[in-house]
Amino acid sequence: MANVLLRYTNLVLVTLFILSLLSFLLAYLFPGQALENLTGLRLNELSELQNSQIKYSVDNNIFVQYWHYVGELFSGNWGVSFNTGLPLYEDVGRYLPASIELSSYALLLSFFIGLPLGFIAALRHHKLTDYSLLSVSLLGYSIPVFWLALIMILVFSLQLGWFPLSGRISLLFEIPSITGFILIDILLSDLIDKQSAFIDALRHLILPTVSIAVVTTTMIFRITRRSVIETLNSEFILAAYARGLTPTQVLMRHGVRNALIPILPLLAMQFPTLLTNAMIVESIFSWPGIGNWLIQAIYQQDYPAIRAGMLAVSVLVVIFTMSIDLIIRLTDPRRRRAERAAI
Known about the structure:
The structure is a single chain. This protein has 343 residues and is an all-alpha fold. The chain has a domain at 98-289 and 313-335: MetI-like (MetI-like fold, Orthogonal Bundle), CATH 1.10.3720.10. The protein has 16 helices and no strands. It has helices at residues 2-29, 34-39, 46-56, 62-74, 88-123, 128-142, 145-159, 182-188, 194-232, 235-242, 247-260, 263-268, 271-285, 290-299, 303-331, 333-342. α1 (2-29) packs antiparallel against α15, α5 packs across α15 and α7 packs across α13 (271-285).
């Protein structure tokens, strides 16, 4: 276990090094002065720029500059936005939790729908139920996320009026940001009418969450179905039937656990896709997340914000993906046996 942890730690450190290096080089690739792109300060702010020249050691070679840049990153000095003049560290800390919240709810919804349907389709393999669910999943996987989001707005917001058109919560409620997750912040707040605020936030969440979850649900369904079919055709399953176990006993004792083990690493790889779809949906629903913030930064040519936002999202994806893979490697007995055999 110690060797596995050490290998993953080194891999994470190397990946983070590459990401930080790429974000540093973006300051030189973007139009304008590199120091301006690093700090967000304009040439007319001479006194602060002179201090920044010392901080980033711009008179030295690029390796020394990168070293000072990493030091500023760890100290929380990511620069300021060209447009708002606000610190980028605070902006990322304010907008990123909203994207994580939206992605988390979509992932949970996908699990609750995709996993059971995958088991049902596998157990009814080559029957009408299996073919029907496969056809629906193919349709859901083929629908572009932005098109689905617009259709849902047209139908459920404009035509039926069931859900709000955009935003995260009604302007009637002022929720103090504690965790960055709106539902949790409402529960932790001192609002008099928490129930109304909670219901209003839920109504704002439904359409963007479902828009993201449709594609992820179809992917989870197809992965689960394939894994369950392969597991049920394995030799140990046939041996369990030969021992006289009923189909229900075989499924609960041997099928479910062994079918889920190969699913988890594949699901972890869906997180970047999920987060990308969330960033697209945010701009459609005016959801105040990192994706909407980044798109606005691109429109306004806010290069320091683009650099900081891309670095934050990339680090989040890397840490999440590798953490899931590490947990699976430590808990999967088949992988542990394979590693010991290799040694």
